[in-house]
Amino acid sequence: MTPNWDDMRIFLAVAREESLSSAGRILKIDPATVGRRVARLESTLESTLFTKSQQGYVLTSAGQRLLEHGLHAEEAMRAAAGAVAGSTKSLSGQIRIGAPDGSANYLLPQVCAKISDANPDLDIQILALPRVINLSRREADMAVTVSAPTAGQLRVKKISDYKLHMVATDDYLQKYGPIQSVADLKGHRLIGYIPDMIFDRELDYLNDIGIDRVALASNSVSVQLRQVTLGTGVCVAHDFTLPFHPDLRKILTDQVSLTRSFYLVRHEGDQRNERLNRFADALTRGIREEVLRLEAEADA
User: Fold this and answer.
1) Could you tell me which of 59, 102, 208, 217 has the fewest CB atoms within 10 Å of its CB?
2) Burial grade of 104 (CB within 10 A; 0-12, 13-18, 19 or more)
3) What is the per-residue DSSP string for 204-245?
4) C-alpha distances in angstroms, 116 versus 137, 160, 279, 285?
5) Pairing verdict, β 154-169 and 190-192
6) Under 8 Å between Cβ of 179 and 297
7) How confident is the model over 244-255, as pLDDT tens digits?
8) pTM reported for the whole predicted model
């Protein structure tokens, strides 16, 4: 007997989450129903798909074989839905973007607002996490990253370069003295990421300029900039954040100037999804334009 797609959808959620409760939360159904649907699928296929362990629900060899086919079926369903939705003039439904803190706070709100204005039936969700977004578990439909992943079945497209510089407030510099060289930083309070929580080598800015101690640390760019705005120290900041913090000014611009890049990462299987393709194009164009606009404003 051929399993129905709804049971397969529940199977995929349990396979990804390894938990009935977590799968139920994502699917918005109670865990008992999830368990019954998995049992029904196992009965239909006459195979045990999961074993229960201390780690949760683990796929059996039969479950592993079904997973591959289930993922292909899911990609086909998403492509079909995208083709239908993409054939209309405006986009609709829900799209979730994963992004690191800096872009999620300072770029995506205004970029997504413009996309929303052009597509009033589209629901856009911004998932801001201080870690790599797990696309294989469908945490998001696509992700903005600061490095290009090399593993997994993913499509990667460079969006834009962006610049970073050291910043401080005038009040801080008047109180603690001018900073004329990188060596002078040793005598000042540095603000940056929590060292053991830096999830991408590209974010280890202070190490790149020879700083080995962070006096005030946070895994959030917004918190770091708030601390600098209060006049408590200096940090490396994205140039595109500076128009939002007019009290901050660049220092050591002739000695410390970093360049990083944003990438758009998507599921390889979504390449035929016209709806997501159109959204990705609008998102890429919007981020690129917003970085250029804000960096020019920061230099004005």
Assistant:
1) 208
2) buried
3) -HHHHTT----SEE-S-HHHHHHHHHTTS-EEEEEGGGGGG-
4) 26, 22, 10, 14
5) unpaired
6) no
7) 999 999 999 999
8) 0.73
